[in-house]
């Protein structure tokens, strides 16, 4: 079996999308029947959702597919190939607005931010992989292209486009990642999110060094409002996103002045 590093003379692997050839149908004659990259990627995502990346292995995937691990290698060279394929497949779940539509850029930007946040929460394993790989699969590129087109409609100068994208979507990346981790911790306890929050707040206030900070945080949270964890998370997200949009508007107005 020819590995990626061997094909490139020992050079580090870059991306499954830079292989320089289509591998969707396998390596040629003799590949296992009933398998293809689509099915393998689908099962990979299901396992990552259920068990996380730490427990994922080619052997575990092969067992789920009811084939040998060698059968999977007819379609991919490495486990990283599979993770990268799974990563891009999840980006295909995003509902993207049409930048050419007669819609306000603010509404489209909010829609993109909400979609990305929901994706990160739905697949908690996505965020570390998005930071690890190049994100140059077709679905990731489609997402990036629409983001750029929407941001260009804001009226920002060309040199400010990437900064605005970073401000909005690195915020969403961080928010969705933390929210996803929170829900994973909640699921591990068997509690609801509200039960877990009440329990955590009760426990942490028992520590003298934390009590003053927690009391101040509690006053801030009360002022913010929200009866449930879901409502609190949503209010914070909406307000933070509005701050960023207001910042874009202010920068546009400054440029016009």
Could you give the topology of this structure?
Elements: H1 4-7, H2 37-51, H3 58-65, H4 69-72, H5 79-91, H6 105-122, H7 126-132, H8 138-152, H9 161-189, H10 193-204, H11 208-224, H12 229-256
Silhouette: flat
Give me the number of helical elements. Answer: 12
Number of domains: 2
CATH topology of the largest domain: Tetracycline Repressor, domain 2
The largest pleated sheet is described as: none
Describe this structure in words.
The longest helix is centred in the last third of the chain and has 29 residues, at 161-189. This protein has helices at residues 4-7, 37-51, 58-65, 69-72, 79-91, 105-122, 126-132, 138-152, 161-189, 193-204, 208-224, 229-256. It has twelve helices and no strands. The model is unreliable at 1-9 and 24-29 (pLDDT under 50). It folds into two domains: 4-91, Orthogonal Bundle (Arc Repressor Mutant, subunit A); 105-190 and 225-256, Tetracycline Repressor, domain 2. The chain has 257 residues and is an all-alpha fold.
């Amino acid at each position: 079996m020819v590995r990626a590093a061997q094909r490139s003379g020992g050079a580090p692997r870059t991306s499954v999308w830079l292989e320089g050839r289509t591998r969707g149908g396998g390596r040629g004659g003799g590949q296992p029947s009933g398998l293809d990259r689509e099915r393998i990627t689908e099962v990979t995502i299901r396992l990552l959702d259920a068990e996380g990346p730490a427990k994922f292995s080619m052997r575990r995937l092969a067992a789920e597919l009811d084939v040998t691990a060698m059968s999977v290698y007819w379609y991919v060279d490495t486990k990283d190939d599979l993770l990268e394929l799974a990563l891009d497949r999840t980006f295909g779940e995003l509902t993207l607005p049409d930048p050419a539509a007669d819609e306000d850029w603010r509404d489209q930007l909010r829609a993109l931010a909400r979609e990305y946040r929901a994706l990160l929460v739905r697949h908690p394993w996505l965020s570390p992989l998005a930071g690890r790989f190049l994100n140059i699969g077709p679905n990731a590129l489609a997402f990036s292209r629409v983001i750029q087109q929407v941001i260009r409609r804001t009226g920002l100068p060309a040199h400010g486009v990437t900064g605005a994208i970073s401000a909005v979507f690195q915020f969403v990346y961080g928010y969705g990642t933390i929210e996803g981790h929170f829900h994973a911790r909640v699921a591990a306890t068997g509690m609801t999110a509200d039960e877990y929050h009440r329990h955590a707040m009760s426990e942490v206030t028992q520590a003298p060094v934390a009590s003053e900070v927690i009391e101040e945080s509690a006053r801030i949270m009360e002022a913010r409002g929200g009866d449930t964890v879901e409502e609190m998370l949503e209010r914070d997200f909406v307000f933070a996103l509005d701050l960023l949009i207001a910042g874009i508007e202010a920068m546009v107005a400054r440029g016009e002045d």
